[in-house]
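Pasting as-is:
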Amino acid sequence: MERLYVILVSAVITFCSGTAFAQIRINEPGRVVERQAENRANRKIDQAVDKGFDSVEEGIGNLFKKKDKKAKETEGAKPDANADTKSGSEASSDVSNEATAESGTPAKAAKPSLKSYSKFDFIPGEKVVAVEDFAQDAVGDFPAKWNTNSSGEVVTIEGTEGKWLMLGPEGVFYPEFVNKLPENFTLEFNLATTSEFSFYSGYLRTIIAEVATPAKEFANWKGFDGGKKNGIELGLHPKDAGGSQGLAMFNVFGEEDASSIMKNEKSFPAFHVPEHNVVKVSVWRQKGRMRLYVDDYKVWDLPRAFNPEKNYNFIAFSNQGYHEEANRYFISNLRIAVGAPDTRSKLITEGKFSTTGILFDVNSANIKPESYGVLKDIANVLTENGTVKVKIIGHTDSDGDDGSNLALSKKRSEAVKEALSRDFAVDKGRLETDGKGESEPATPNTTSEGKANNRRVEFVKL
């Protein structure tokens, strides 16, 4: 596979007529691509919100052909050179200063609020069992723990934290380390596309299936039905036929090859170019039921998507091919957690509830809006048990300085207390706070999964 070289993207946020725009420049040797896209932070409150990405594309060697400038810069617009950061590892990423130097004084873009996720009821699994952030892989390589019948490579995207897997032409991409999925689990990952994306390019398909020998049979889950069986396929595309929304599909397969039991397709607002082309995808399995969310938008809720008699052991991503050379899908921050959290039982009966589902901005006590479902669940338990008091205890992994981690854990527990009081009307007098930093790990800090399980918030009944 020819090695592509990753170079930097400069993202500039401009404001005009009350609407924020993100101008993305992809620099190649002798080539410049400039685009203009509406800032995702201005979407309606009942639609999906920005995940903190201000930059959505990476300049990739000679992949992109030279294009004319697609839109004129707005006269008198003010750029934003402040990129939000991502949670996960405790390291931050900033937008290149080049954007500020070329365009003037930066202006701060609006961030999504916790309240904007008020319809989001997703609750991640109790224990994190798999994390893939591509930290172990070199930029330009295909990830060592994955397999494919196509091509792809690890890249970085300016303005985002961490690394992404850029999916190459038509093929199947699967993490070989996922080989067992229980009847209750959650799958989360970040998905991005280039800002311009053809309607005629294929879906990004997420596959969950029972496969006897994945190393030999994974290619059955390519674009066409062929040998697909005993699984479900969830498709997302950033442009429907009208061009103003995204497109979603599902296809459930039975025991015979290409035996589609049920399928459907619909347009939806949470994923489309160029406004919302960087999103968080969440899949929730509860025995037979499957729920799919894109950001806070519930796309599908299927009560009979999974066959309880099947042993699902395979997750993959499938790309049916790109109609235009510049089109690309990117995925990152894959996270699989197992178990069905029973907040009420654990907190009221057992006296302690611990969750990794309350997420924060990197090195910060700012709660990320996708934490809403977990906070709402805890608030409901406290509301139903009006005399119960709890202590909120923050924990971190071992990355970074001990003292800084301790201070951060205390600030995060205070932030959770404030959110429960402000957004869910829980009396502050019932809530105490503390932080333990890295001093009480739940699991060894030797793996990505272990660190993810240690970045947690505990609720202890008093």
